[in-house]
Specification:
Layout: H1 6-10, H2 23-27, H3 35-45, E1 58-63, E2 71-73, E3 77-83, E4 87-92, E5 97-102, E6 106-113, H4 118-121, E7 129-131
Antiparallel strand pairs: 1-3, 1-6, 2-7, 3-4, 4-5
Length: about 130
């Protein structure tokens, strides 16, 4: 059975197009974009929300880890679970696992994503899994 297009899948989401910032990104995807280009499109429609997240909120950001030889997502989409003096723990939606993120490895700001935008943003293929050499 063929997969549904992004537009067909989002029709199930009741989010109002007038308040969902992610819809224009989805509407512009043609399937040839690389993850970093899609991440730039996502960041263009969101607003910077500083460096320190709040537990229970959703964010995306650019991440460059310091630990060598690990696989990482350079464009995480997360639900923050705990905030510490060294960074935070969050469920990464691209991995489906909780990961730790340290302050110094976040490039720039965090970008808050609203709860009613998560389903749409999960449809945008902007995960970029890399090996840190």
């Amino acid at each position: 059975m063929p997969r549904k297009t992004l537009k067909e899948r989002r029709e199930k989401n009741p989010t109002d197009d007038n308040t969902n910032r992610i819809r224009p990104v989805i509407d512009g995807i043609d399937g040839t974009e690389n993850p970093d280009d899609l991440m730039l499109r996502v960041l263009e429609v969101l607003e910077e929300s500083g460096k320190i997240p709040q537990s229970g909120k959703y964010y995306t950001f650019v991440y460059n880890p310091k630990t060598p030889n690990i696989r990482y997502d350079s464009n995480p989409l997360v639900a923050v679970t705990q905030v510490f003096n060294w960074g935070f723990k969050a469920l990464n939606f691209h991995w489906g696992e909780v990961h730790q993120y340290t302050w110094n490895e976040i490039a720039g700001s965090l970008y808050e994503v609203y709860a009613d935008e998560i389903a749409d943003l999960r449809e945008v293929p902007f995960a970029n899994i890399r090996l840190n050499n």
